Every structure is written in C-alpha cells, then in structure tokens.
Amino acid sequence: MGFFDEFDNKKSLEVYSLGVPVFKASFDDFVCVDSKCMDKAEFVEKYISSALYSDIMNDILSQKPLKIESKITKTQTGFIQEALTQDYEVLYRVDGRELFFVERKSGFKFVVRFLD
Question: How far apart are CA 15 and CA 80, in angstroms?
Fold first, then answer.
C-alpha cells in the first residue's frame, strides 16, 4: 500500500507494508530512493535498460504511452504497449485501476494499483 503524489514536474511514491514505511521515491530532475539520489539516465541504465530513454519513469507515472518503437493496443480503459528489441522486452499496461510495467531482460517490474 502506498501514496502517489504529483506536483508540477515532481512525482513521489511512498510505499508501506503493514503500516510500516518500506521506501520513499521521488522523480523529478533526479530519482531519489530513500536518501540516495541519481540522475534519471543513471537510474534507467542501472535498473531498467540502458537502451531506454532517461525520462521513461515520468511517462510511466503519468500513464502516457512510452516513446519507443512498439505495438500499442487500445483497450476500453487504457492501452497495452509491447516492445521487443535486442536490447529490451517491454510490456506496459495502463487501465483505470492499474499501471503495470515490466522490462523482462533486466527483471525490472513496476506495478501500481489505484484505489478509490
């Protein structure tokens, strides 16, 4: 369970398990997880794929289609975007209740379920 906050170009995510804080991440000019910060390009290269663009987390958190060559299928409540290249395998799904992103080659997975 957690909280997502968006103000101007800054997005933050606080994640809790059984009411205990697990981590806090913020995304703006830098990506900070707890108190450790790195620039966006470094974060993407280290955790997702060096072949993807530096602002991809902003697009994911904003539930926008990714700026990559891919197949996009519109659904009633959003879209599914799939990309398979020699450098990355992306499955990205956005609907009214869930945001799901996985890059299979690195094993990076990011899922947000929205509650009322």
Answer: 25
Domain holding 85, by residue range, is 2-113
Domains held by the chain: number: 1
Any idea what the Cα angle at residue 85 is, between residues 9 and 54, rounded to 5°? 20
CB count within 10 Å of CB 44 equals 22
pLDDT single digits (tens) 39-67 = 999 999 999 999 999 999 999 999 999 99
Q: What is the DSSP string of the chain?
A: -EEEEEETTEEEEEEEETTEEEEEEEESSEEEETTEEEEHHHHIIIII-TTS-TTHHHHHHTTPPPSSS-EEEEETTEEEEEEE-SS-EEEEEE-SSEEEEEETTTTEEEEEE---
Model's pTM, two decimal places? 0.89
